Structure formats: C-alpha cells, structure tokens
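Problem statement: downstream parser choked on a complex file, so we are re-checking the raw output for the flavin-adenine dinucleotide run. The parser issue turned out to be on our end (a line-ending mismatch), but while we're here, posting the original submission so the record is complete.
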Amino acid sequence: MNDKTQDIAIVGGGLAGASLALLLSHHLPQLKITLIESFPLFNSDNEKSLPSYDDRSSALSLGSCRILQTLTIWSQLKPYLTAIEKVHVSDRGHPAGTLLDYRELDDISDEEALGYVVENRHLGQVLLSALAQQSNIDTISPATVAEVTPQADEAQLVIRQGDKQQRLAANLIVIADGAHSSLREKLGIAVEKSDYGQVAVIANITSSGYHDGVAYERFTDSGPMALLPLGDFNDEHRSALVWTVDSDREADVVAMSDEAFLQTIQQRFGNRLGFFTRVGKRHIYPLALYKAKEQIRRHIVLMGNAAHAMHPVAGQGFNLALRDCSALVDTLCDATVRGQSPGELDVLNHYLSRQDLDQEKTIGTSHLLTLLFSTAETLPAFARNTGLFGLNFLPGIKAWFARQAMGVAGNRSQIAQPASSTAAEKRIK
Ligand SMILES: Cc1cc2nc3c(=O)[nH]c(=O)nc-3n(C[C@H](O)[C@H](O)[C@H](O)COP(=O)(O)OP(=O)(O)OC[C@H]3O[C@@H](n4cnc5c(N)ncnc54)[C@H](O)[C@@H]3O)c2cc1C
C-alpha cells in the first residue's frame, strides 16, 4: 500500500471530472492533480468507453463554450461542433410556438451562436487526449475509489486496482462519480430524488431536409422531443433525437422496428426536416432529478451529476456542471492569492455561495419545464401555450429566457466571461 499526497484528487473522469481537471491544470498550473477513473481512460474500444462519452450528443450553451475556449482543446473541438443558430419551440396540436434567433439578440459576435452541439464521443476523445498531455495531472485507471475519509488537514482515498490497493491523500477531493455516486452514499450524504417515471430515448436521425442550424424542442402528448443539429455525414443530413416517453412505454419503443420508430417520430414531429429516412442505434436513459443535500465538507466537494443530475429536457446538466467547475477554479485562484489551501471549508463555502443561485434557478427551471411539458392536461397546456405565445410578443422576457438557457445570465466567474467586451452580454439585454 503506497501513501502519496496531492493538492487535488478527482474521482471520476466523466464530463464533469475531466473538464474540471483540465480547467484546474490550465488556470492553477502549480497544483498537483490526480484523476481516478473506474474505466480505462485511454482506450479506443467503444464498448469499454466511459459512460459520459457514449452515443449521446450534448447541446453546449454559449456560456459553456466561453469556458472551454479558455483551454487549448477548443481548437481541437471546433471541427466536431455544429452551431445552434436558432431554437424553435413548439407544442404539438397547438398553434403557439416561438423561434429564437441569435441574430435577434444584439451584440453576439458573428463568431458566436446560441450554442453548439457535439457528439459526446468526440468531446470525450478531445478531453481525454488533452488530459494525457498535462504534466501536472496524474491519472489512475482503470481503478476504483472504494473509500473517502476526511481528516483534519486532508482527506484520504482508498483506491482499488485489480487486487492491489493504494492510499492517496489530497487537500481537496472532488467527487465526480455520477448520479448514483457510491462515495456520496458512503459519506452519508442524503439526496433529494424525484423520479419522473420517464425515460429518454436517444438516437441519431437522418432526414431529407437540412436543419439549417435550428435546434427543435417540441412538446408532444407523449413527452418532450428535441432534435439537435449535427454535422452532415456521407452527404446525409443528421440530427440528434432526445425523446422523453413514460417508462411504461419503454418496452414498446425498444421493440419497434426502425420503420415504425421513424414513422412515430415523424408523426409527432411533423415535416419541418422533410422525411426521416434512417435511425441509428437507440439508447434508453431513465430520468430522475437528484440533488445532494450537502455538496461540500472540509476537504471534499461534490461535482457534476454527483451534486445534481437533472432531466435533459432543457439540456442543462453538463452546462451547469461546467459553470460549477469554473466557479470552483475561480474561487481556488482567489484562495491561492490569499494563501489559503483548496480544501479549507471557508474556501468551499465561498464557492458554493457563488453557485447557489445558479444551481437553484437551473434545477428549478428544468424541473418546472419537465412537469409543465410532460402532460396533455388542459391547465398546463394552456400555461405553456400562453408562455410560448407570450415569448413572441415580449422581447424582454424572451431575452431573459435566452440568457438563462445560454448560460450567460447573472454573475459569471472570471473564466466564463467573454474573451472581449464586444460579445453577448450587451447584446442579450
Ligand atoms: C439523454 C441525455 C441527454 C443529455 N443532454 C445534455 C445536453 O444536451 N446538455 C447538457 O449540458 N447536459 C446534457 N445531459 C446531462 C449530461 O450528460 C450530464 O450532466 C453529464 O454526463 C454528467 O457527467 P458526470 O461526469 O457528472 O457523470 P458521469 O458521466 O456519470 O461520470 C462519472 C464517472 O465516474 C466514474 N466513477 C464512478 N464511480 C467511481 C469510483 N468509485 N471510482 C472511480 N471512478 C468512478 C464513472 O466510471 C464515470 O466515468 C444529458 C443527459 C442525458 C441522460
């Protein structure tokens, strides 16, 4: 058994853990960081790849892109990004709908968009290959953290790798081991859980029409459906589908032939993208809201889905996690100037107080949208249609809504500021 001491240890190399490691490494290069992941981090075998980097696609908000732009990975990521220039929100069977176009919002520079879509597999390749190149990040994988024990001046980890076991101590341990975090449970941290009784069905869809940079969010009697724009492949127009259905329909949806599946989607979505001609492999994700009742303890912080996991209806899970990561890095930069160490409770309290409101608003809005848009009942249908209708005629509210969705509202960390004063902040008033 080895004993080793690091400044920061991160458990989990998913989207949250890997992004945080790169942000820390870039903005606080003097720190020694270790990242531990149960799956092999540098493995080209898709079947063994990390759960974060599966066949899903992620809509990255403008705020997330600004954070990622501070890292050298941005240029490697760019070829895999498809710009979201417009968002079209509609409700099946009701006339109201709204189109949000980035050109309507003053001061977004021509190089920016409402956000970008990236296939998680590509995002993973870029994040993980950057991790391998950082001299101040040690990685241990495949290896599983079995225990975390906070102590007076540090916290200790027990790491299992095959039949070997090692201990590692760090001033700050970041627990980013996902929504079902076993370490959160071992620390006795309770979670607030709301099961939506729904699953998300995801698949890539080929259509005869081009998306033109439009992300579609459509509310249907069987649950919300999003089609996110993807880059063409072999001259075929592609979009990423996220369709929410009640859990008791899961078996039917899985059993459908590709033809029947495409027909069902077409019926619910309409012809905005022409005809759906092909569907890739379908994957199912059970949906629930998880919120840890504590996110910090002395020398410990929960990050990503371990801290909060939400319904993908508004595509905010990773975007919020990235804002948390950048706020933590910002706070640690300030703490370093003051001579404080990363795991001090005072420092972690400061981090959480900066992110509290953002977390409350983002989680609350996702939860409310899920409830409002997952029912065909008259009152919620009236509320959402009045809302969609109102957005078209109240530009102030539309812009406020856009700022939240784009992750550029409120007080952002230094890292999340636009590169120059020309960008979105003024424009999205
Ligand atoms: C269908 C769907 C669509 C989505 N779309 C969007 C979107 O468009 N935009 C957006 O912002 N968000 C989106 N999200 C949310 C986003 O995918 C999550 O926020 C993100 O994946 C969370 O990443 P994570 O790193 O916190 O957790 P995870 O991806 O679960 O990663 C945790 C990692 O920790 C490792 N691990 C676990 N236990 C241990 C241990 N004991 N020791 C070592 N390693 C361990 C695991 O192997 C794993 O690699 C979507 C989610 C779903 C389900």
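For whoever reads this later: The longest strand covers residues 191-207.
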